[in-house]
Design brief:
The protein is built from nine helices and no strands. The protein is mostly helical and about 190 residues long. The chain folds into two domains: about 50 residues, Arc Repressor Mutant, subunit A; about 120 residues, Orthogonal Bundle (Tetracycline Repressor, domain 2). α1 crosses α4. The longest helix has 26 residues. The radius of gyration is 18 Å and the shape is elongated.
């Protein structure tokens, strides 16, 4: 793929992810192309159907989230990396919620995109939790599966205008709870 075609494709994916998070999967494809600064023909050359665009956006969002865990772990102290990653999970969840109808169709069609995504996200979280526990910046009795269950609880919250800011506050509360009583955490006693 030529460099300009690759840039157009990435721009389309980023714009589509934001549009799906904001307006849902029925966002106009023409509007996505316009916001990306390309013609509708360019969008269709890269993504022949809406479902193909949704599937590709979903894969990209999972990849970005999983790669973010590695990047954050390199750049930040363990508890801060975990906190930032959980905030990024809110953005991922917002996009996924916006695509839920199309994702359900893909799920019903037994699309392979769901085969490894949940385990990849769980592994990313497990790595960040383990590092924070080892550093003593979160509680030692933390089970990554419990954190994941709490985080995915925000997915099922009602779709109100304040869903995203409220979800971000909830993630901060979860992080405060993880730090409470940690040997080196901010909530150490």
């Amino acid at each position: 793929m030529r460099a300009d075609a690759r840039r157009n494709r990435e721009k389309l994916l980023a714009i589509a992810a934001a549009a799906f998070a904001e307006h849902g999967v029925n966002t106009s494809l023409e509007e996505i192309a316009r916001r990306a600064g390309v013609g509708i023909g360019t969008l269709y050359r890269h993504f022949p159907t809406r479902e193909h665009l949704v599937e590709t956006v979903y894969r990209r969002e999972v990849d970005l989230l999983c790669h973010a865990s590695e990047d954050l772990a390199r750049r930040l102290p363990p508890d801060e990396a975990l906190a930032e990653w959980m905030q990024q999970l809110v953005g991922y969840t917002a996009t996924k919620r916006g695509m839920s109808d199309s994702l359900r169709i893909l799920f019903d069609a037994n699309s392979e995109i769901f085969a490894d995504s949940p385990s990849r996200i769980a592994r990313a979280l497990e790595t960040l939790v383990a590092a924070a526990v080892a550093a003593g910046t979160i509680r030692k009795d933390v089970a990554p599966s419990d954190v994941l269950q709490a985080l995915f609880g925000i997915y099922s919250a009602p779709a109100t205008p304040d869903w995203e800011p409220r979800s971000r506050r909830i993630v901060s509360l979860i992080m405060d709870g993880l730090r409470w009583g940690a040997p080196k955490g901010r909530g150490a006693q």
